[in-house]
Design goal:
Blueprint: E1 2-3, H1 11-22, E2 27-31, E3 37-41, H2 43-50, H3 69-77, E4 82-86, E5 100-103, H4 106-112, E6 121-126, H5 146-153, H6 170-191, E7 192-202, H7 207-219, E8 223-230, E9 245-252, H8 259-264, E10 299-303, E11 305-307, E12 317-318, E13 325-326, E14 332-334, H9 338-346, E15 350-352, H10 353-356, E16 360-365, H11 366-369, H12 382-385, H13 388-398, H14 411-420, E17 428-431, H15 438-450, E18 455-460, H16 470-473, H17 479-503, E19 520-526, H18 541-546, H19 557-568, E20 576-581, E21 584-589, E22 594-597, H20 604-611, E23 624-627, H21 635-648, E24 653-656
């Protein structure tokens, strides 16, 4: 009976498995230092396979680096022995909701989510610390002291003394921020679906470093846009330049290229169906007409020329009505190659200005264009998109006029991003710097408006509120308490508005359904399992007695269930119910995707009933069954359990913790 490992995946080993699929000859077995074997990469063998396309050690190259980068990159792949502990009392509609609120360090959270949500997240939005000098609270172990930083620079004079003294810490200041962001973005990319997208809010302090990190992790080809957003409408009078905008950097997991770039790009993998395309805003239909009764419907005339000069797109076009030759305007070229232009002429897609006697133009049809509209890459319309002031007012309205959180993002901004992300009915939206939980509020609001069933995952460090703050005096000890209360209040407000609207419906109007306004609270903690890896010399009677149970005494069966879900890579927001089988608590998760029982000495009769369970939807037996090691008194009992499942539910995977 297989035993679950109960720790996050070792991403280095995951990557080795991927390399082994391509180059099995470079993967070798070596000692793991604990008497076992571990797969490792033979770099010399890999170098030989890739030569001469490998950099020499002293060869110059373009690179973005900082002191601490190697350690930060390694941190993304290092497994942890932590778990997500359910907190039902702080949750809302625990049994039925598909939304999650995770409390703890987001680096740990991203590692714990790797298997359950690998490639499943449609959209990520984050508003990380801007590194302004007072908002940096993530104390990762790869941060460096000033001494370590200076030594890491390796810049010394002829006597061996360090030449650069980081007296103002500016260099290390940026290095710490980069080291904080790098592993988190690396893990975040794993969670995105192939058609997924990440939006990152940032300001002038770190926008350059953020883009360099994202270009490395996501690929520069996948930069969708760097959008300046008007975050404030008032003017600062205590500075030379009044800062009134921030940036939103947008990167796709795989970006689908279009038009000229699509045709000429060598990145064929970005052209597939499962890649990100920004959802266009609705086209203004009033700008289209159909004066010639074209069967393809409404159209408008667009220029046939485009910016830049390219020889293969610079050629004469002859007006068939006048015989006159036309070249592109100065500094421009035609949109099409000659052969494609011939097709467009034959298809009646080229018209001529001045009643047929002027220059060529392109017919653009509404029905074809409406799926491929463009979005402005600068957002300075405060009344449409909102500012931080709007976000503050929205939060104050929920909290009876009190200010408990500084500069929250406005709901209108997040609604725009969620729409542009092309989220669908069951899309998962992640925010791992969730702050006041504007993202969760926006997800519920949009679901209420369009009947969607999007799910959110919020992650927030329980950063303590200042004891002098209004939030602390009101009873909110940390940011998580504010975020969770915001979701509760926003959900109830949305529910009340829908119910009021339904009471005023006219005859034949369909009532709106209240969306999922619940959420499950999960808190990051140390592993549920005791440290059972003792050497022979370290083992004595005390430790042997302690290891009778390998599970910590303060952990509940619900703690164990979510530890198992994380280990098995099952989603954490599916339907959950507790069944009573002959007085024994049995967990049914996601319609028998998992059946778990963590009682001591489970009777054989209960085992037989668990194996006989069948899904109400599919009629199938449980996919997985998990017990604790001490559910069975001895080895013969374990063997008997396996035999029962082979007989009654042969497809069920049976495991223990």
């Amino acid at each position: 009976m297989e035993k679950l490992k109960m720790e996050t995946p070792d991403m280095a080993q995951v990557n080795i498995e991927k390399i082994a699929e391509l180059f099995p000859e470079v993967v070798k077995e070596a000692s793991d230092g604990q008497g076992g074997l571990k797969r490792k990469i033979d770099l010399d063998a890999l170098r030989q396979l890739l030569a001469p396309s490998v950099f020499d050690e002293d060869e110059e190259r373009y690179d973005f680096t900082w002191v601490g980068k190697k350690k930060a990159a390694a941190e993304a792949g290092t497994p942890i022995r932590k778990t997500l502990r359910p907190c039902v009392e702080e949750s809302k509609d625990w049994e039925n909701t598909g939304n999650l609120y995770i409390e703890g360090d987001n680096l740990d959270a991203l590692k714990l989510l790797q298997e359950s949500y690998l490639g499943k997240v449609k959209m990520i939005y984050i508003d990380p610390p801007y590194n302004t000098g007072h908002d940096f609270i993530y104390k990762d172990d790869f941060k460096m002291s000033a001494k370590e930083y200076n030594e890491g620079l390796g810049v010394r004079n002829e006597e061996g003394d360090i030449m650069f003294r980081n007296t103002d810490t500016n260099g290390r200041f940026h290095s710490d921020w980069c080291s904080m962001m790098y592993p988190r973005l690396k893990l975040a990319r794993n969670l995105l679906s192939d058609d997924g997208v990440i939006f990152i809010s940032i300001d002038d302090n770190e926008v350059d470093n953020l883009k360099k990190i994202c270009n490395e992790i996501f690929g520069e080809i996948n930069l969708v846009a760097e959008v300046p957003w008007q975050s404030r409408s008032s003017i600062q009078n205590d500075t030379d330049f009044s800062v009134n905008h921030e940036y939103i950097c947008i990167y796709a997991k795989k970006r689908r290229l279009r038009n000229r770039r699509l045709k000429e790009s060598n990145y064929s993998e970005w052209h597939e169906k499962d890649s990100f395309v920004c959802k266009p805003l609705p086209l203004d239909k009033s700008k289209f007409d159909n004066p010639d009764n074209d069967s393809r419907g409404l159209w408008k005339a667009d220029p046939l020329d485009a910016p830049n000069i390219r020889p293969n797109l610079t050629y004469p076009i002859i007006n068939p009505n006048t015989g006159e030759e036309h070249l592109p305007p100065r500094g421009r070229c035609w949109r099409f190659l000659p052969e494609k232009l011939s097709d467009a002429l034959a298809d009646n897609r080229i018209i001529w200005t001045n009643n047929g006697r002027g220059r060529p133009q392109l017919k653009v049809f509404y029905e074809e264009k409406k799926e491929f509209g463009s979005v402005d890459n600068s957002w300075f319309s405060a009344e449409k998109i909102g500012t931080s002031t709007n976000g503050t007012k929205e939060l104050m309205k929920l909290f009876d006029g009190h200010i408990y959180f500084e500069t929250p993002k406005p709901i209108s901004l997040l609604l725009k991003l969620i729409t542009l992300a092309n989220t669908r009915n069951n899309s998962i939206i992640l925010d791992f710097f969730s702050g006041s939980a504007t993202t969760a509020h926006a997800v519920m609001q949009l679901n209420a408006e369009d009947g969607g069933n999007r799910k959110f995952i919020m992650v927030q460090l329980p950063e303590e509120c200042d004891e002098k703050s209004e939030a602390y005096k009101a009873g909110y000890k940390n940011v998580c308490e504010i975020g969770k209360e915001r979701i509760r209040r926003a959900g109830e407000k949305i529910k009340a508005e829908i119910e009021e609207s339904n009471r005023q419906l006219k005859i034949d109007e369909e009532p709106k359904a209240v969306p999922d306004i619940g959420f499950r609270v999960l808190k990051i903690d140390s592993t549920n399992m005791k440290d059972v890896y003792y050497g022979a010399a370290e083992t004595n009677q005390v430790t042997l007695d302690d290891l009778v149970s390998n599970i910590k005494e303060d952990r509940t069966d619900l703690d164990l269930l979510f530890g198992v879900l994380t280990d098995l890579g099952l989603p954490l927001g599916e339907k959950h119910e507790v069944m009573d089988i002959d007085g024994v608590r049995v967990h049914n998760y996601d319609d028998l995707s998992l059946v778990a029982c963590f009682e001591e000495n489970v009777p054989e009769s209960v085992i037989r009933k668990i194996a006989s369970l069948r899904s109400e939807l599919t009629g199938m037996e449980p996919m997985r069954a998990v017990f604790r090691d001490s559910s069975f008194p001895d080895d013969p009992s374990r063997i008997n359990v396996e035999e029962i499942f082979k007989l009654k539910a042969p497809a069920t995977e049976v495991k223990v913790i």
